[in-house]
Amino acid sequence: MLLLAFDTATPAVTAAIGESAPDGAFTLRACASSVDGRRHGELLAPTLRDLTREAGLTLADLDAIAVGIGPGPYTGLRVGLATAHALSDGLGIPCHGLTTLDTLAFATGRETPFVAMTDARRKEVFWARYDDHRTRAGEVEVLRPAELDTGGLPLVGDGARMYADVFGGAAAAPEPLLPDAAAMAELALGRLHSGEGLPEPRPLYLRRPDAIAPGAPKKVRQWVK
Questions:
Q1: Which of 69-73, 195-199, 215-219 shows the lowest per-residue confidence on average (mean pLDDT)?
Q2: Residues 6+ apart with CB under 8 A from 219
Q3: pLDDT per residue over 170-197, tens digit each?
Q4: Are 3 and 9 in contact (CB under 8 A)?
Q5: First-to-last C-alpha distance (Å) of the chain
Q6: By CB neighbour count within 10 A (0-12 exposed, 13-18 middle, 19+ buried), where does 142 fall?
Q7: Fewer CB within 10 Å of terminal CB in the chain, N or C?
Q8: How far is residue 175 from each of residues 93, 171, 194, 219, measured CA to CA in Å?
């Protein structure tokens, strides 16, 4: 199976093409990442074009797509999801979701408990506990760093780096800081091969967007002398 994986839920635009053999063995065919929190829409399409060329493939060769579902800032997250759905519909192949923090956690390779977190803006972080790099221990949440009880576990991700003054020694080795699609492709193919399945490719929102539809106009009283 040839799978295209990409994530735009953080400042990183990261994409990879991975291949799984019948026995589940994973091969990375190509990968690329860039970091620019304001240019997801400009960077993603050229990245995917260059990626397929590097792998010696065309989009028509793909068997499936995996896309990061967040959580993350609204605009960047929607760029990835909209692109994934468009490719899935156009190519007639399945599209799967993958939680962004799961990708970040998998890349650590850690076999002991830890906490992964990314920047949620508004002086908050998206975070989740992991028993190891493959196993999330609960749901993803959003909190202010000072409100987060990490239980003394080591922290990874750019959220840990940004608030190292709050977390102290637990954030001493926060790498990797951002998700990497090479790890994402391996994780997605591994779960598909094992029959574990993947989430629906729908955005994981943990709070309401900043932009909301305007309400009804206020009534204005006219005073007549």
A1: 215-219
A2: none
A3: 999 999 999 999 999 999 999 999 999 8
A4: no
A5: 79
A6: middle
A7: C
A8: 34, 9, 28, 54
- pLDDT tens profile 90-114: 999 999 999 999 999 999 999 999 9
Distance separating alpha carbons of residues 211 and 128, to the nearest angstrom: 26
Instruction: Look at residue 211 in the predicted model and tell me its pLDDT.
Output: 47
**How far is Cα 157 from Cα 29, in angstroms, rounded to an integer?**
25
* pTM score of the predicted model: 0.90
Query: How many residues are given for the chain?
Result: 225
Q: Which two tokens stand for residue 86?
A: 């468009």
